[in-house]
Amino acid sequence: MFKNVLVPTDGSELSTQAIHSAVDFAKAIGARLQFMHARSSLPLSLTGIDQWVNPSTLDELITATREDSERILAEAMAIAAAAGVEAKAEAVVHEVPYQAIISAADQHQCDLIYMASHGRRGLSNFLLGSQTQRVLTHASQPVLVSR
């Protein structure tokens, strides 16, 4: 059935719950997991943030975003390892996160995408938006949505 499952995550509480559920699912069916975190490559000048923040702070923001991505994926890998589920992780920089999710599923030959019904709110949601509906609409693989 499903042997290679993509699990996109944004670090939100619901996304973390989806990771736990995906790990249980993978363990039950003997699948391996491919975790991914997509960060926007949207130039900060287009968001208007660069007008209000000095350049060194922007560099710190970029570094913090990369470190946040690494932390999110490390947590996902730890959850899988604790359950004895084979997993890999990848951080992706892409201007359109839902396209990054679909590309990762294709690139890693995943036969299922397992994701949370929605993600972060606030500024992250404003910059990235909820991507689940777009993945459901455009992915060629089946999508299992966790609530």
List segments where confidence is low: pLDDT < 50 over at least 5 consecutive residues.
122-129
Structure annotation, total helices: 6
Count of the separate structural domains:
1
CATH superfamily: HUPs
Largest sheet: 5 strands, parallel
Distance between the termini: 22 Å
Beta-strand portion reads 15-25%
General form = globular
CATH class: Alpha Beta
Describe the overall structure.
By secondary structure, this protein is of the alpha/beta class. The chain has one domain: HUPs (Rossmann fold). It is 51% helix and 21% strand. It has six helices and five strands, in the order βαβααβαβααβ. A five-stranded parallel β-sheet has the order 3-2-1-4-5, sandwiched between helices. Strand 1, helix 1 and strand 2 form a beta-alpha-beta unit. Helix 1 runs parallel beside helix 3. The two termini are 22 Å apart. About 5% of the residues have low confidence.
